[in-house]
Amino acid sequence: VGGITNSPQHRRVWTAAYYQITGMKLADSLGGRGLARLRLNNWVIYDLYGANDMRNSPWNFRRRYTFNDPARPATFGQPVPYVGFDTIFRIPPHTTKWFQFDPNDEFGFAMIKDIILMRLGETYLFLAEAQLKQNRAADAATTLNLLRARSNAGAVTAAQVTLDFILDERVRELVGEENRRMTLMRTKTLVDRAVKYNSVSPVNQMTGIAAKHLLMPIPQSEIDLNKNAKLEQNQGY
Prior knowledge:
Layout: H1 10-14, H2 42-47, E1 61-62, E2 94-95, H3 120-133, H4 137-150, H5 163-174, H6 180-186, H7 190-198, H8 220-225
């Protein structure tokens, strides 16, 4: 889907607000003007990728910044330090998939980069999931290894392929692209994985998640509009 100019939020959501740090200026090489509205959890940042997986390279995940304002020679060219318990907003590690900068639009109103709805890598992931459900784990491993070989991630065996592994691989391949909530709802793993991977937060601890949160509540206005048959509310609401 082509980029548009009505203020879509992908860049703002995923790119850090590094320019708020003294000694930092907006730059195309740093992704333009982001707001860091989403931060990847610690599992993705520290544990998800293997050592040689190219999907975790410095060009795909930015983890380090260098002061880039020549008007401040004392710091220019020096590494930006990580100060405090968690630099969650200004320089969190983040995907570079949505980098964009237009010198005529420094504030970043427009989003001219194409929006990814689906690509071949996800098709392979769907195929592997279907093969696993057909008890064809060896075929699923072969399919996954097509992606992993491209990324220098190392081959997996049939014994390693589980639904959890495929869901992990979806993050490695599609972080910042897929509608993750829909994937976890579809596979009925939303609550379990949210508890497993988000229970320890550097800022706000996750509390209160329960089985009912697999689905969202149906608005009462929609229930009231259903005149010819009773529309049941989702369980737990």
